[in-house]
Amino acid sequence: MKNPATEEEILNPVEGEAAAQPTELEQLKGENAQLLDRLARLQAEFDNARKRAAKEQADFRDYAVAGAVEAFLPVLDNFQLALAHGGSADQMRTGVELIVKQMEEALRSLGVQTIETVGAQFDPRQHEALESIETAEHPDNQVLEEVRRGYKIKDRLLRPALVKIASNSAEHKA
């Protein structure tokens, strides 16, 4: 059987609940402290992950630059050798031509491609028109001359080709 309620419990029922509340309040304070601790740990983990990702990205960039520089060191060596040895104008020209070929090979090894120019149709995404030459011999907007070579890596334009293009007024009238 149930114990009969004491006179105090009957007269003051809120006090019974108040006795239970401090333990519930303490429990909520404990949970709050645990959640704050967990939040602080997660923030620290996030900061560490962000710093680690930034360091990895910097390392990757350094290694990529090192790979590119490594491809051009032999070219620099050959320029230095050419300057040290001097020679006639023809010898210098031949040496420079060989160095240009070596430089082009280094660019190819890095995945750099030249942009097609002379004879191609002008493409404003890859070419920059320096001059328009009036002619009836070539189709309108055909690239006639390359002033400066353009380069790309895959689909990314590094530098547009600087070109002179044909302007065929006969095609404009037709």
Task: Work out the number of β strands.
Answer: 6
Strand order in space, largest sheet: 1-4-5
Largest sheet: 3 strands, antiparallel
- Based on CA atoms alone, the radius of gyration comes out at 38 Å
Overall geometry = elongated
Beta-strand residue percentage: 15-25%
> SSE order in H/E notation?
HHHEEEEEEH
Distance between the termini: 112 Å
The SS-based structural class is alpha+beta
Question: Which residues form runs of ≥5 with pLDDT under 50?
Answer: none
Number of helices: 4
List the helices and strands and how they pair.
Elements: H1 7-11, H2 13-85, H3 89-109, E1 112-114, E2 127-134, E3 143-148, E4 151-153, E5 156-159, E6 161-167, H4 169-173
Which key features would you list for this structure?
single chain, 174 residues, alpha+beta
Describe the structure in brief.
60% of the residues lie in helices and 18% in strands. The protein is built from 4 helices and 6 strands; from the N terminus they run αααββββββα.
Describe the overall structure.
The protein has helices at 7-11, 13-85, 89-109, 169-173; strands at 112-114, 127-134, 143-148, 151-153, 156-159, 161-167. It is an alpha+beta fold. The strands form two sheets. Strands 1-4-5 form a three-stranded antiparallel sheet. A hairpin with a 2-residue loop joins strand 4 (151-153) and strand 5. The radius of gyration is 38 Å and the shape is elongated.
